[in-house]
Write a structure and sequence with these properties.
With 221 residues, the protein is of the alpha/beta class. The chain has 12 helices and 7 strands.
Length: 221
């Protein structure tokens, strides 16, 4: 049975996604998460999850960092980004970081069903309204190269990097991950080497560059 994880912090939107997904795929099992930590915990608990519908802006996730985390720690899982942000350059960046599809929150249920069916069939999917503009959006090359470097990290190394980006010190990271501090230092050495940076400050900046502004917050302000 196919297994889907819906990751969004709005219960009503999750319910709508769940219903549309159930209509799109027979015998679909659905799990839900309302934060990036919840997403990663669900993927750890159920390795058989086939597809994640990922909101770009929810607790713990502020842009493409969550997508990068999933791709680094669970590379076999397909991800459709679901976002109110339909900027073609953002869509291009998401694809460069390994998204299998991109679905604006303004899309209709028919498009959602088509997206799920297409990605489940191992195809890439974009709504027809975005295909031409995304094709014109030039990939800078930076995101593709960064995605490759991040993908070279082990799952534990990526966790260490994420905690460095949050500003945690080595001892705090060791306590959070329940490992020795010398293990954290060894991971950091490998992270610096693979990302091509010199120190923890530069390493944290690399991950924070994946953050994006939330259009909903911009409208609210």
């Amino acid at each position: 049975m196919p297994l889907l994880l819906i990751a969004d912090d709005h219960p009503l939107f999750r319910a709508a996604l769940r219903q549309a997904a159930a209509d799109a795929v027979d015998d679909l099992q659905v799990r839900e998460a309302d934060s990036l930590d919840g997403v990663l915990a669900a993927l750890d608990a159920e390795p058989g999850i086939d597809l994640v519908l990922l909101d770009l802006h929810m607790p713990g996730n502020h842009g493409l960092a969550g997508l990068a985390a999933i791709r680094a720690q669970h590379p076999g899982v397909a991800v459709i980004v679901v976002s109110a942000n339909d900027d073609p350059q953002v869509v291009r960046r998401a694809l460069d970081h390994g998204a299998a599809g991109y679905l604006p929150k303004s899309a209709g249920l028919d498009e959602l069903r088509e997206a799920i069916r297409s990605v489940m069939a191992c195809e890439q999917w974009l709504p027809a309204s975005l295909r031409a503009s995304v094709a014109r959006a030039q990939s800078s090359g930076y995101d593709s190269a960064l995605a490759a470097r991040l993908a070279s990290l082990s799952p534990q190394q990526f966790r260490v990097l994420a905690l460095v980006a949050e500003g945690l010190l080595n001892k705090q990271i060791a306590d959070r991950l329940d490992v020795q501090e010398r293990t954290v230092k060894a991971h950091l050495s490998a992270i610096f080497d693979r990302l091509g940076v010199r120190n923890r400050t530069q390493a944290g900046v690399v991950l924070r560059e994946l953050e994006l502004r939330d259009p909903a917050r911009q409208i609210a302000s």
